[in-house]
Amino acid sequence: MRTTERILDLDLAISQPPRTAHLGHALVWIRTRWTSLRNRLAANNLADLDDRLLNDVGLSRSDVAQVLKEAGLADDPSQQLTRLAKRRSEQALRGRKAE
Questions:
Q1: Which one of 8, 22, 45, 60 has the lowest number of neighbouring Cβ atoms within 10 Å?
Q2: Is 33 within 8 Å of 27 (Cβ atoms)?
Q3: Name one Pfam family in it (predicted).
């Protein structure tokens, strides 16, 4: 037998993730979208508060309006609002006027 006749026929299966992995990714995606929508609705409710209450949490009406305008429908505006409020509270603790 010649070397050229000794060809091994290996059927190497291409590994594919199990269907449960696809289902898990889909569930994570749905949960993320649901959380983003819920947080967006909560941020919309912030716009209904009066200026005094918004100031108590470290936000202004223009902050809320701007973040809601810039964020897409599927985006979560709560993280950006949290960062703004935290920055304002840190500035207030240092005695600086909020920007």
A1: 8
A2: no
A3: YjiS-like
Kindly state the DSSP code that residue 16 receives in the 8-state scheme.
Answer: -
At 78 the pLDDT is 87
From residue 17, how far is each of 14, 24, 25, 31 by CA, in Å?
Answer: 10, 11, 11, 21
| Residues 34 and 74: beta-carbon distance below 8 Å | no
Between CA 33 and CA 23 the distance in angstroms is 15
At residue 36, the pLDDT reads 87
pTM: 0.62
95: left (phi over 0), alpha (psi -120 to 50) or beta: left
Tell me the C-alpha distance between 77 and 35, whole Å.
11
User: Could you tell me if 88 and 59 are in contact, meaning their C-beta atoms sit under 8 angstroms apart?
Assistant: yes
Residues sharing a CB contact under 8 Å with residue 66, sequence separation 6 or more, in sequence order: none
Q: What is the pLDDT of residues 45-72, one digit of tens each?
A: 988 899 999 988 889 899 898 998 888 7
